[in-house]
Specification:
The protein is of the alpha/beta class. It contains 14 helices and 28 strands.
């Protein structure tokens, strides 16, 4: 129950609520965790800064990569799925953690289907499967053709509604409450009008998604501003692999487009589409043994190189030729509808595409059950770095990770509460509501897109850092936009710090001045905030609870 605390005009919380677990975010990881935690008897509150169904999950098109017994070919296995994941992750995948998460996939899908999610079937009565970049087998199950994320989100939102999981919509999390000993004991929030409140809880789960809005063009919605990552850093947590931002090779190109661009799912290439330049020449021929189904970092880099050479006079996009795919509109209705808006018919017209920021491979360092280095603070989904993705995410592993880790983190919170390992929320101190370093968003996005996207070098990264330093000033965190801009600023600074130090090319971190991988860099970089609030390199902190 909430209780009034202070005058609405004062810069202190005006209401207070209590819970056993506060879940920040309402995507696949957050709702999975909330449902499981409530089933375990915990008092749960979900906080989301838009409507409950407006997260990034619903935009996921391709599917869920999972090996299901009696549903897949005999020559596929979880171990082969793991090997593909290790290959895509370019030497930085935590193999123990990855196997643990992938092993949990079949049970997670069974739970989701039991909760009402419907996946596409093949003619033999089994689940339909497709293959995406980096996969050695057809193991990606999907729903609604190319609307898998929408179906997963629909099912979870419906379940949350039936279970009466409390959801606080249009509220943004600002900062964690912490005890004198450093344990998390709740979170402060703002509503859409800037009215502050506080939720006291011994456990806070960050399931707030990624950082796509660091860049001018992204497949992510407008709410993907790194708020959870910034909150974790300010709470004393470490982040890792933050320099690895995966650019999806194919979003629908529209001249001058900014913000979220329609995704052209990788499954289109899985069904036989090919990438060509403006002269009709194959982009991927001779680049990689898997051709158009090479890992995403390879394809994005190849497209970028081809755009720079600009055969046929096209320098800001290439084309995806899907004219040979029968029944395109039925198999990929979401992509077809987006193309139709531009007057394109993929049955006869090559689709103009370009890379865009898609998925953050790094995040808050956690175990496979969501525990971070700060007691009481948990993370799951894109905001977390479990070790599954390494330097580059394998296609369609993200929904699987959210389902598996979301379930496990609820069980971890329940166990930690029962063991008395979490804080008394009444001892949590309110954080400062004053100011935070904030850069102007348009300038930040322009400089990150220019210097810290697919191709990076020392001079460009230094220039980006200088621009951020010159454009950053302390701003009051008193609106949603202010909190988002402050989050983008600290995340950008952390990314630039890590990218500058990693003097090699690996996965989706491409340094034009260090084009080859280096064995000495076959390790993750951990970052925390210094006492002055600046991102600095940190020693890894051993975490307990790895399954």
């Amino acid at each position: 129950m909430s209780t009034p605390v202070n005058d609405p005009q004062a810069k202190t919380p005006v209401w207070e609520a209590r819970a056993d677990l506060v879940v920040i975010g309402s995507g696949v990881a957050g709702l999975t965790a909330a449902l499981r935690a409530q089933a375990l008897g915990l008092h749960v509150l979900v906080v989301t800064k838009a409507a409950v169904a407006d997260g990034n999950t619903r935009w996921a098109q391709g599917g869920v990569a999972v090996v299901l017994e009696n549903e897949h070919d005999l020559d596929d296995s979880v171990e082969k799925h793991a090997e593909d994941t290790f290959t895509a992750g370019a030497g930085l995948v935590d193999e123990v953690a990855a196997r643990s998460i992938l092993d949990g996939g079949p049970a997670a899908i069974a739970r989701l289907r039991a909760d009402g999610a419907t996946f596409d079937s093949s003619g033999d009565g089994l689940l339909a499967r497709t293959r995406e970049g980096g996969h050695s087998a057809f193991r990606v199950i999907h729903a609604g053709g190319d609307a898998t994320g929408a179906e997963v989100e629909r099912a979870l939102v419906a379940q949350a509604g039936q279970a009466r999981v409390p959801v606080l919509e249009h509220h943004i999390a600002v900062d964690a409450l912490r005890t004198p000993g450093g344990r998390v004991a709740g979170v402060t929030v703002l509503d859409s009008g800037g009215v502050p409140g506080v939720v006291r809880a011994p456990a806070v789960l960050l399931a707030s998604g990624g950082v796509g809005q660091l860049y001018q063009a992204t497949s992510n919605p407008e709410i993907a501003t790194g708020d959870g990552l910034a909150l974790a850093l300010r709470a004393g947590a470490t982040v890792a692999d933050i320099e690895f931002v995966q650019f999806h090779p194919t979003v629908l190109y529209t001249p001058g487009a900014r913000g979220r661009c329609p995704l052209v799912t990788e499954a289109v290439r899985g069904e036989g589409a090919t990438l060509v330049d403006g002269a009709g020449v194959s982009v991927m021929h001779g680049v990689h043994p898997l051709g158009d189904l090479a890992p995403r970092d390879v394809v994005s880099a190849a497209i970028t190189r081809r755009m720079l050479t600009a055969p046929g006079g096209v320098d800001d996009h290439v084309f995806l030729d899907a004219t040979g795919i029968a029944g395109f509109a039925q198999r990929f209705p979401t992509v077809f509808a987006a193309c139709a808006v531009l007057g394109l018919d993929p049955a006869r017209d090559p689709i103009p595409v370009t890379p865009a920021a898609h998925f953050s491979c790094g995040g808050v360092v956690t175990t496979v059950d969501g525990r971070s280095s700060v007691p009481g603070l948990y993370a799951a989904g894109e905001v977390a770095r479990t070790g599954l993705h390494g330097a580059n995410r394998l296609a369609s592993n993200s929904l699987l990770e959210g389902l598996v880790v979301g379930q496990r983190v609820a069980e971890a919170v329940s166990a930690d509460l029962a063991a008395g390992l979490l804080a008394d929320p009444s001892r949590g101190r309110l954080p400062s509501w004053t100011t935070a370093p904030t850069a102007e968003r348009d300038a930040l996005q322009r400089v990150m897109s220019r210097y810290a996207a697919i191709g990076r070098d020392a001079d460009g990264l230094a220039a980006a850092g200088s621009v951020l330093d010159l454009s950053t000033q302390d701003s009051p965190l008193w609106t949603h936009a202010a909190v988002e801009d402050a989050a983008l600023t600290v995340v950008a600074q952390a990314l630039l710090t890590a990218a500058d130090r990693r003097t090699e090319s690996r996965g989706c971190h491409v340094r034009t001045d260090f084009p080859a991988p280096a064995e000495t860099w076959r390790r993750s970089q951990h970052i925390r905030l210094s006492l002055s609030g600046q991102p600095v390199l940190a020693d890894p902190i051993p975490l307990e609870g790895v399954a």
